[in-house]
């Protein structure tokens, strides 16, 4: 198989070919395995016994991700678009911590290295690129952003109101030492977490707490319903094409050209595209 620039682009950025699917599956496996290494590396007994092996495997995986990052830049006509995109930043953050760890040398900076190396967990965000379900969820969240913002605004208003009332009812002698502390109690109670570090002692305070708890159960389902309704409205898309010019990836299944910049998507071979396709 001849790997020219166009073929590399199809393998790396598209998932409707056999090679592209294999490429995506390998990356998914590497992402999950590298995150597993981060988790294992945080366990002291495992780190002491297998630390060198974990770090060797980690550098090997980082080398693969670095090669992937370079190839993505190489095959694109406008690599700056990719470098400044969300996924471009995530790809950079997936490989940068290992190299930053080399800068902080010396015994006093070991904790800094540990903190920097933990940034590798950002690799998990790379998974959303390779799963259509992840892209659907992200689009649904984006389309419902105004409803979600309004929902969060209502929640903030409720916790401020209930927190203020509880401060006035219970007072400092019952643990509600300030309005911010009372708002903290309202958040914990409304979300049904219930730490129990602060609790009302008066009858009216307990009555208000019961109302907040019942509201919490009703409120939990709201954001789920908002996002689910948006997902049900969204048309199903099987097109995995990514525009090589502007990196736009939300194309219709029958699209031949990018709806943002007009570049050919190569859904078919160049010589198979009708001459009048651009006039449709």
Structure description:
The structure is a single chain. By secondary structure, the chain is mainly alpha-helical. The chain folds into two domains: 5-130, Up-down Bundle (Four Helix Bundle (Hemerythrin (Met), subunit A)); 145-233, Helix Hairpins, CATH 1.10.287.70. It is 63% helix and 0% strand. The protein contains ten helices and no strands. The protein has helices spanning 5-13, 18-41, 44-75, 79-83, 86-103, 110-117, 132-143, 145-170, 179-190, 203-233. α1 crosses α2, α2 runs antiparallel to α3 (44-75) and α5 (86-103) runs antiparallel to α6 (110-117). The longest helix is centred in the N-terminal third of the chain and has 32 residues, at 44-75. It starts with a helix and ends in a 47-residue tail after the last helix. Residues 107-114 and 267-280 have low confidence and may be disordered.
């Amino acid at each position: 198989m001849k790997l020219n620039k166009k073929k590399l682009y199809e393998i790396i950025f598209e998932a409707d070919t056999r090679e592209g699917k294999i490429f995506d599956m390998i990356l998914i496996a590497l992402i999950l395995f590298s995150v597993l290494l981060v988790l294992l590396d945080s366990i002291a007994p495992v780190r002491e016994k297998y630390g060198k092996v974990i770090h060797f495997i980690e550098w090997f995986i980082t080398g693969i991700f670095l090669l992937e990052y370079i190839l993505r830049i190489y095959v694109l006509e406008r690599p700056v678009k990719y470098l400044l995109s969300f996924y471009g930043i995530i790809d950079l953050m997936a490989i940068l911590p290992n190299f930053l760890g080399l800068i902080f040398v010396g015994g006093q900076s070991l904790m800094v290295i540990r903190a920097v190396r933990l940034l590798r967990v950002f690799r998990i965000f790379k998974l959303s690129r390779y799963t259509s379900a992840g892209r659907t969820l992200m689009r649904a969240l984006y389309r419902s952003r105004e409803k979600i913002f309004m929902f969060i605004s209502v929640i903030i208003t409720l916790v401020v109101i209930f927190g203020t009332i509880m401060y006035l009812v219970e007072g400092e002698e019952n643990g509600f030492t300030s309005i911010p502390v009372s708002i903290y109690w309202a958040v914990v109670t409304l979300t049904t977490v219930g730490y129990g570090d602060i609790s009302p002692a008066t009858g009216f305070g307990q009555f208000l707490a019961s109302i907040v708890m019942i509201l919490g159960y009703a409120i939990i389902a709201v954001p789920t319903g908002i996002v689910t309704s948006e997902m049900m409205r969204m048309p199903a898309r099987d097109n995995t094409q990514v525009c090589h010019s502007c990196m736009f990836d939300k194309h219709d299944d029958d699209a031949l050209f990018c709806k943002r910049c007009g570049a050919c998507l190569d859904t078919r071979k160049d010589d198979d595209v009708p001459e009048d396709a651009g006039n449709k």
